[in-house]
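Notes continue from the previous slide.

Worked example: a multi-chain complex. Inputs as given:
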Amino acid sequence: GENVEQHPSTLSVQEGDSAVIKCTYSDSASNYFPWYKQELGKRPQLIIDIRSNVGEKKDQRIAVTLNKTAKHFSLHITETQPEDSAVYFCAASISSGYSTLTFGKGTMLLVSP
Amino acid sequence: ETGVTQTPRHLVMGMTNKKSLKCEQHLGHNAMYWYKQSAKKPLELMFVYSLEERVENNSVPSRFSPECPNSSHLFLHLHTLQPEDSALYLCASSQDPTGGSDEQYFGPGTRLTVT
């Protein structure tokens, strides 16, 4: 089955800095890679996703890159703000009518003012 | 937020009790999921229902029994649980990607404590 590794487990940055979180996956058949943000005591929410037919996707301060050959993908947050503080999860799946996501262990991002 | 709701939000039960968790989605989706979220572990997929049929069961112990009576409701029946089953149980739903997005919408979760 799929195995997703996520690093780092914790990341502390100053407000305005950039943050990068990296994930690797094992199943070359995976074709859908979402990133979820979970604030303390709240539900996970999708912030951005990418499919295997593109190498990069950007949405304002958030971007995701995908390297299919190396089987890794990364989340980039620029100009971080304190409200970006949360746990971020990457996931991988084969999309086929429903998506059985395999999640990474999560990265706790702390943005200090 | 009313897209995916879960009840109860908190549950404390003894190892000999039987209880059920309920999930309801108001998004018109046709796939529903149960996840277990424990401290310092990844979100673990437990069950997947697509079009009301169970399609995935990730080797979950039989003390967890899912039920999906229709596309809007999902239950997780619990019996003779162990203390290590204490966790946050999250329900999610998604639309068939052929007609929409892969995005999974999560409920707020049920915090379960087994004593």
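Summary box: The interface with chain A takes residues 1, 4, 31, 40-45, 48, 50, 55-56, 90, 94, 96-98, 102-104, 106-109 of chain B (CB under 8 Å). DSSP finds no helices and eleven strands in chain B.
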